[in-house]
Amino acid sequence: MFGSCRKQDTASKEVEAYLSEHYQLTVNDSTIYCFFPANQCKNCFRYDAAYLAPEISEHCVIITGYEAGNFKGFRHVLHDADDDMLRLQALDYGNRIILFKSGNISRNEVVTDLYSQLGNVWRGM
Amino acid sequence: MIIASTLLAALSFSCDKNERLRDATEPPLIDSFSVSGADIGQQTNNFRYINDSTLCSYDLINKNLVFFQKDKSGDYHAGIKKEIDTEFWSMYFRGDDGKNYFVDGNNSIAEYNQTADSLLEQYAIPHHFPYLKDSFALALSNSMPIIKIHDTLIAVISPNSNESLRLYYHEQEVSEFKFNPAKDTISYIRSYISKPPGLADYDFPLGSYAFHTNTVFLIYPQYDTIYSFNRSTSTLRKIAIHNRDFVQPAAFSCIPFTPEYGSCATRYSLHNFRYYGIHYNEVTKHFLLFYKAPVREVKGRIASHKDQPLQVIVLDEQLTVLNYYSFAKNLEAGTSFFMIPGKGLAMPILDEHYETTRFYIYHL
Fold it and tell me: What is the tens place of the pLDDT at every residue in B46-87?
């Protein structure tokens, strides 16, 4: 009964609505959402899932304004060609790793070293 | 009497120039066409108009000069690709003679013929400059062109180090060089329009310039002023624009090569006024001044670049403001424009950047 009365903050609502409207995704607690808006040099980075344990990359959803080629080997790469994600206040216009817990953002950090950050996040899940 | 004075007041109000300029509308759209078959998204893919049936652009990643041919529907497709063997940080420009020039990371300039079939000359640029003790690089963007007229090269230079190729705030002045084909060298002639002292330590000072009647017209993103330098008389002028949308921007304090740089730079460009470029339209004899006004929030949501339309001021040859326009389409600001003689300015849309993009031709 009390479970249906969850309170959701605005930033969480925005991310949830964005994922639902654009990709028909429902947020859950066991997925790591990685956002990469295309507001940086597209030739300046490239991530390879081979540097991650398979179970981590499997639980990772990359949402990006760049081409999938920037994320080699990741199974779940969603392309936001219009960079609509830049409107999300949770991102603050930057690359972010976001986790949800009971419908609210429980972790939101700037991407500095993706591989080790994903490792840490995975260990804490 | 009262009616007559009211009518007079109403007439003078409707004829007031400032009032007429108040509403920015969409500029007249003439036509559109698509360009496909190459990686259009490369920032270095600056398009050049050769003739009505041919465009070209330099694909920096694959090191090809790509020629695009027009089909019956008016769209362009990548055709012949000429491999150009230059170093990574190569830049491309066309001279007034239609020849193709490539600048490599060692400041040597390769001159190719019009079809880029054969290398004609290889010029070395000397490294001794009054204000640069080490090496330097020619800096290029479409709004900050490298211009070659006869044997004279007009360009902006910046120090050449591992980091500074992207740190354009080191740019000092517009500089002139002279080609010496007999010696395969390029010599330094002079520099002019010093960077304003207030910009010395800031990024985003990509000065943009246009060239007309032997005069360089330069604008900085943060100043509501056009600097003009007449090469014949060596006269420098500063002309205030009085752009109605101008708001003095904050200092740019984002630190390059940090994880936060992208978000910081995006936030800055949304929240601050910025001029993106000055162009001279030889068809209409107008100067075009592109800019974006600050935006923070739209309908209770934080703003994205879609909420910040590209705007343009049209000025006559005396630099008097004629009109304001705002583009409804999400057009690329400052790069990859090109003029189609007799038609108008072709501008690419921002969101279609990979295999195909669409250009819109405006009469401005």
Answer: 788 899 999 998 887 778 899 999 999 999 999 999 998 776
Chain A positions touching B306 (Cβ under 8 A) are 82-83
Collect all residues with Cβ–Cβ distance below 8 Å to B231 and sequence separation of at least 6.
Answer: B176, B214, B215, B216
Q: Where are the alpha helices (DSSP H) in B144-295?
A: 261-271
Q: How far is B277 from chain A (nearest CA, A)?
A: 20
Domain boundaries, chain B: 16-362
Of B349, B346, B357, nearest to B48 (Cα)? B346
Q: In this complex, do A67 and B354 lie within 8 Å of one another by their Cβ atoms?
A: yes
Q: CA dist A65 to A42, A81, B36, B352, Å? A: 9, 5, 20, 11
For the domain with range B16-362, which CATH number is right: 2.120.10.30, 3.10.310.30, 3.40.309.10, 2.40.128.270? Answer: 2.120.10.30
Cα B91 to Cα B104, B108, B141, distances in angstroms: 7, 11, 9
Say if the Cβ atoms of A81 and B303 lie within 8 Å. Answer: no
Name residues whose C-beta falls within 8 Å of residue B211's C-beta, 6 or more positions apart in sequence.
B145, B147, B149, B154, B217, B280
* Residue B243 near residue A79, CB atoms below 8 Å: no
What are the structure tokens assigned to B57, written together?
A: 């652009």
User: pTM for the whole thing?
Assistant: 0.82
Q: Measured between beta carbons, which residues in chain A are less than 8 angstroms from residue B304?
A: 83-84, 86-87
Amino acid at B83: E
Domains of chain A from N-terminus onward: 9-124 (3.40.30)
Query: Nearest CA of chain B to the CA of A89: how many Å?
Result: 6
Chain B residues with at least one Cβ partner in A under 8 Å: 41-43, 61, 259-267, 270, 301-306, 351-352, 354
- Per residue in B272-303, pLDDT (tens digit) is 999 988 888 888 999 999 999 999 888 888 99
Read off the pLDDT band of B19 (50, 70, 90): very low
B331 and B348 Cβ atoms separated by less than 8 Å: yes
A contact set with B (CB within 8 A)? 14, 37, 39-43, 67, 81-84, 86-89, 91-95, 110-112
